[in-house]
């Protein structure tokens, strides 16, 4: 199978390393230009005035919080069904990044809600389901810590991720299915984005910048994880050569 | 099953296919279960009731709930004490009289969506203890909105 070629951890390190500088350069450019446009060039909103600028961080962070979880869900399914050695690592490496994006979305949302709605927080369907998403990320990380054996941890956390994946469409459609204080989607609405290009362009630049930022962090974290597992295998090899050989063979088929 | 000679070697490995079908079946059951739960709890998942809901659900006086809708045009009155605001909330079918004593959010204005928390009194007036402003999904540059208002082409809320 051709997919197995890319599931080889050593090959992953070799192929992904040259990508890193490009990802960092595009992140710096996109976020730099995006922030200048968002904070200084984009117009104030007719209703919200200058506070609308929180949108340029809040919305991409919220998108990423759902996107990273979707990445984890796909990786978990691949890990459970096909046992790809890289799939586990991808899910594990993604979780803290996704949690950080979720915290950013919740914090900026709260700062935005206070002047606009008149409250920091309400328990409407959108805000509550995003808080559940944060707990899923935190639960995922806690569950990893609860196991000594990375294979068992990978399997248990993959099941948790897949069960929690149902929350992603609930977040997305919460504003359509139930009435909420949070407004419905602006960019991905059926009638096309209901905001002008002067606002849409900085928003999209920020969103793509967040994406390349996530990709760079993910690659670094997966590489670190691969190295950490190699060290672990070597240490086991030193301590107990026979048992280590079995573990190494099942963990890294190449 | 398809004839096995047409399948690549990889697909004939049984445990993988077994795990895949297990995953699919469990996912379908999970989605169905959560879907049923969300439908069953719909009344608790909505954030506010509309004026029409009040009529249809016959919400009695002295029960706390949230009322949501648009502030009716030309309905906002301030009492002489300078603190109490009276206005009507409408969903364009039914209308409810609201009285609120406190500070309103900046976005509060006629034509704006609001969510008020409180209870109905015996006279059917909604006594709000908190009023939140809702804003919609449309973003319009300030100068564009002003130009539209000037030329009389403005169709949005919040004059």
Topology:
The complex is a heterodimer of chains A (254) and B (159).
Chain A: H1 3-6, H2 9-16, H3 19-41, H4 55-82, H5 85-116, H6 125-145, H7 150-164, H8 167-177, H9 197-239, H10 241-251
Chain B: H1 14-40, H2 42-45, H3 51-57, E1 65-71, E2 77-78, E3 84-90, E4 95-101, E5 113-120, E6 126-134, H4 142-150
Parallel strand pairs in B: 4-6
Antiparallel strand pairs in B: 1-3, 1-5, 2-3, 3-4, 5-6
In short, what is this structure?
Chain A contains 10 helices and no strands.
Q: Shape of chain A from CA axes?
A: globular
The CATH homologous superfamily of the largest domain in chain B corresponds to: Nucleic acid-binding proteins
User: Span from first to last CA of chain A?
Assistant: 12 Å
Determine the CATH topology of the largest domain in chain B.
OB fold (Dihydrolipoamide Acetyltransferase, E2P)
Decide which structural class fits the backbone of chain B.
alpha+beta
Oligomer: heterodimer
Q: How many strand units of chain B?
A: 6
The radius of gyration computed from the alpha-carbon positions of chain A, rounded to a whole number of angstroms, is: 21 Å
User: What's the number of domains of chain A?
Assistant: 1
Molecular shape of chain B: flat
Number of helices of chain B: 4
Radius of gyration of chain B: 26 Å
Percent in helix of chain A: over 70%
| Side-by-side strand order of the widest sheet of chain B | 1-3-4-6-5
Count of discrete alpha- or pi-helical segments spanning 4 or more residues of chain A: 10
